[in-house]
Design goal:
The complex is a heterodimer of chains A (294) and B (316).
Chain A (H helix, E strand, L loop, with lengths): L5 H32 L6 H19 L2 H22 L10 H22 L15 E3 L4 E3 H23 L1 H11 L1 H6 L4 H27 L5 H16 L4 H21 L4 H15 L13
Antiparallel strand pairs in A: 1-2
Helix pairs in contact in A: 1-5, 1-8, 1-9, 1-10, 2-3, 2-4, 2-8, 2-9, 3-8, 5-6, 5-8, 6-8, 9-10, 9-11, 10-11
Chain B lengths: L1 H9 L1 H11 L7 H23 L8 H16 L6 H23 L4 H21 L1 H4 L13 E3 L2 E3 L4 H24 L1 H11 L1 H6 L4 H27 L9 H14 L6 H19 L3 H15 L3 H7 L6
Helix pairs in contact in B: 2-8, 3-8, 3-11, 3-12, 3-13, 4-5, 4-11, 5-6, 5-11, 8-9, 8-11, 9-11, 12-13, 12-15
Classes of the chains: A mainly alpha (294), B mainly alpha (316).
């Protein structure tokens, strides 16, 4: 086993980092929405997939990847706003299972609509030419586009962190996840904050989708596996905890990637084994507070 | 009308046999009737957990699949010649799966529970996919031959569609009677107490962790029995048995019919399968249609068809 080249291992760690970043983007959106609204958005995976398809069409229309990269998440986020306004808002005050059931139905509708519009066969997205090659990292070569994905995700996460920590709206959002009743009593319109947060969370899913497109292609079912894995990330991190989503997303990215390297047959199940171990050792998740929103 | 409804609610097992004895002669073709019976049983199991205990599982495919593969492997790989032994293998697999996975999933409550059941079902899907020498992997498990039914010394062939239907009717009918017995027992009452207010049930002195786990195991058994029967019906176990879409189907059937009502799951299974049968002929986009119908039900008719008809108690 000692002859495993360190360079190959390092490249695998970087691949895991890219995968982890996608998990983080999805899990943080899920976690943000759940922490504030106790809504589990089952259609998150379908919206991730839409991000990739919107990216494909925008790229074809404008010819510019940067335009697509900005507009696709915005479009997905806008759709998210509409979903909150016209569907989920009707279910506040009902069992927390109901939004989950509704968005499950919605994800079927979205996936099938995409099949009708874009066809059943998957699409390939080309990364922009400037990012097409590979970069010499000194010890290994790594695809430029993947480094770009890491950079953009890090940028988005820093932006989200600054928004939540440094702006007044962010302050209200954080307060709302602690105690929505008190925030309402202080005169804030909690409904508008939920609306906004649902848009941000789904927009992040859209961003993950278009970033994943050039690496994994776009196909109608692409959201299914990754959304289940993202649920696991959220459970492992501790639901509603944003730091937990980041740590657990990166951790599971590494676990998957390194398992692919050492024991490829176990790649698909290692996520769930990790989850089972965490459930045994720390049922509330790595960063979860016991009893929170349960 | 209300007198009829009241009588139906008091004698569900009699009504079940009365309706399903003639059911094959009112649907377009007989294999659809068998499918309704088996999926109805599947939904019945899901309803025990969701409608009565208040636990939403998105991983029912795991127990359906364990039942199907348990029976299928017993017949196709282990070459068992007793139908009862083969069914017992399916039930045993579902029982073990339900006990173990239930233990893990019940460590978290509420919405986490739904996500965990989904995750564990996905785990089993991948395991089934990779253990191809036992499960047939992507191609499905083939080579299932149905042994003759041994009953009181007689051997009855059940490989014809009508005879298989009546065999399934008796098995499902016994399961329906068992469910009725469970719900009427003190245990069944505790389940509903947990659904209504689990803190209060704890305060009343019930060990709700154990009750929930037992409810989960019963749920797994009903789903597993349905899966076993489906392996016999199809004489093949497709890998889709363990797929998340199977879990989604049973959720939709139960809610269409009416969660928390005794017959809702069967009404839902009929509605779902008859709709699927007629719409799939017209368009390939069946998931789009059923997804939209399901959304309308969640939004506007949360009690489902049967629940609305009888003014069920599961109104929210």
């Amino acid at each position: 086993m000692l002859d495993i080249s360190l360079a190959a291992l390092a490249a695998q760690v970087f691949t895991g980092l890219v995968l982890g970043m996608l998990f983080v983007l999805l899990a943080i959106g899920l976690s943000l929405i759940f922490g504030l609204m106790t809504v589990v958005n089952f259609s998150h995976g379908a919206l991730y997939m839409l991000g990739a398809y919107f990216g494909f069409t925008l790229l074809a229309l404008t010819g510019s990847f940067s335009v697509a990269l900005v507009l696709a998440p915005l479009l997905v986020g806008t759709l998210g706003l509409l979903i909150e306004r016209f569907l989920i808002r009707r279910l506040y005050g009902r069992s927390p299972d109901d939004p989950l059931l509704l968005t499950f139905g919605l994800s079927l509708v979205i996936v099938e609509t995409v099949r009708l519009i874009w066809g059943k066969i998957g699409l390939t997205l080309d990364p922009p030419r400037a990012l097409a090659g590979a970069v010499n990292l000194g010890f290994t070569y790594f695809p430029t586009y993947r480094l770009f994905v890491i950079a953009i995700t890090a940028l988005a996460l820093v932006g989200l962190w600054l928004f939540l920590e440094k702006t007044n709206v962010g302050l209200v959002i954080r307060a709302g996840s602690r105690d929505p009743l008190m925030v309402r009593a202080l005169g804030f319109d909690v409904g508008r904050i939920w609306f906004l947060v649902f848009g941000i969370g789904t927009g992040l899913a859209g961003l993950a989708g278009i970033l994943a497109g050039p690496m994994r292609g776009a196909y109608a079912d692409m959201g299914v596996t990754i959304i289940i894995e993202s649920f696991v990330v959220v459970v492992v991190g501790g639901m509603g905890s944003l730091a937990g989503a980041v740590v657990s997303g990166l951790l599971i990215g590494q676990v998957v990637s390194l398992t692919t390297f050492f024991a490829p047959k176990l790649t698909e199940i290692v996520v769930f084994i990790t989850m089972a171990i965490i459930l045994l050792l720390r049922p509330s998740g790595l960063f979860g507070e016991a009893g929170l929103a349960e | 009308m209300s007198a009829v409804v009241a009588w139906v609610r008091r004698h569900p097992v009699v009504c079940f046999f009365a309706v399903f004895a003639v059911f094959p002669w009112v649907v377009p073709y007989k294999s659809l009737a068998t499918q309704v019976l088996i999926y109805g049983l599947f939904a019945l199991g899901f309803n025990l957990l969701y409608g009565y205990t208040g636990l939403l599982s998105f991983g029912s495919a795991a127990y359906w699949g364990l039942g199907a593969y348990g029976t299928g492997i017993a017949l196709a790989k282990l070459k068992l010649t007793s139908l009862w032994a083969a069914l017992a293998c399916g039930l045993g697999a579902a029982l073990i799966g339900g006990a173990v996975i239930g233990f893990f999933c019940l460590r978290r409550r509420g919405i986490y529970f739904a996500m965990l059941t989904l995750a564990f079902a996905q785990l089993l899907y991948f395991i089934g996919f990779h253990l191809a020498e036992w499960t047939g992997g992507d191609d499905g498990l083939r080579g299932i031959t149905i042994p003759e039914l041994g009953l009181f010394g007689f051997s009855i062939p059940i490989d014809r569609s009508v005879s298989f239907y009546y065999f399934a009717l008796v098995v499902v009918g016994l399961a329906v009677a068992a469910l009725k017995r469970i719900l009427d027992s003190p245990f069944g009452t505790v389940l509903q107490a947990i659904r209504e207010n689990s803190d209060r049930a704890t305060a009343c002195g019930y060990d709700i962790a154990r009750v929930k786990h037992l409810s989960f195991v019963f749920y797994a058994l009903f789903c597993g029995l349905a899966g076993s029967l489906d392996a016999l019906r199809l004489t093949v176990v497709p890998i889709e048995s363990l797929h998340w879409s199977t879990s989604g189907q049973v959720v939709m059937m139960t809610l269409l019919g009416g969660a928390g009502t005794f017959f809702g799951p069967f009404v839902g299974a009929i509605a779902f399968l008859v709709l699927e049968d007629s719409i799939s002929v017209v368009t390939e986009s069946w998931p789009l249609v059923i997804g939209a119908i399901f959304m309308l039900f969640v939004l506007f008719l949360p009690r489902g068809i049967w629940g609305t008809l009888i003014g069920g108690f599961h109104g929210r």
